[in-house]
UniProtKB/TrEMBL annotation:
Pfam families: GerE, Response_reg
Keyword Transmembrane found: no
Cited InterPro entries: CheY-like_superfamily, NreC/VraR/RcsB-like_REC, Sig_transdc_resp-reg_C-effctor, Sig_transdc_resp-reg_receiver, Tscrpt_reg_LuxR_C, WalR-like
Name of the molecule in the record: Response regulator transcription factor
All copies of domain HTH luxR-type, residue ranges: 147-212
Species: Cryptosporangium japonicum
Residues with the 4-aspartylphosphate modification: 55
Alphabetical keyword list: DNA-binding, Phosphoprotein, Transcription, Transcription regulation
All residue ranges annotated as the Response regulatory domain in the record: 4-120
Amino acid sequence: MSVRVVLADDQPLIRNGLRVLIHDADDLTVVGEASTGAEAVQLAREQQPDVVVMDIRMPVMDGIEATRHILADAGPVRVLILTTFDDDEYVYAALRAGASGFLVKHMALDDILNAVRVVAAGDALIAPSVTRRLIEQFAGQVPAPPPLRSSDGITDREREVLTLIGRGRTNSEIAAELYISPATAKSHVARLLTKLGARDRIHLVILAYEMGLVSPH
């Protein structure tokens, strides 16, 4: 079945370009377009798409607030942020609002399509180098809570894994650094998602910073 996509951007040229791009993909379908965050929320409720590709700076309601509203509704809709990254100071807030990842407007067309597919499949975009830059830039904007406590149920090994996730490591890199198998690393990540109630890997990165396991520098 095709992945159902809503495009939310106040720039018609951006929406038109994405619509044409998605139209040429056999497994993706645009089911609605919005020029404001409020329109995106309404379309998400009406169409129940798999993915909303969401700009951040839009009139009436910005993409962050729209993301909160969309994800507060019941349903499996996932939000993929569209951003210029270099000058957008709201990306961190958007991820905290529940977005599953982000796109950069100047990234390769194939990467944009793949990003939509990844999010639709229930995963998060976690390009390590970009994620490190993103989180390190914005993590300092919120106060860090106390370090992890034993009552949180996190083992020493899981703490090590979470720290490496916060540094943008992939499962393979975690396995190599901790001298464990990739399958074991994947199992640790899965347990952390469950124990911490995290939505996805990007959420784990954010939690690692908020818990003081990794510091911006």
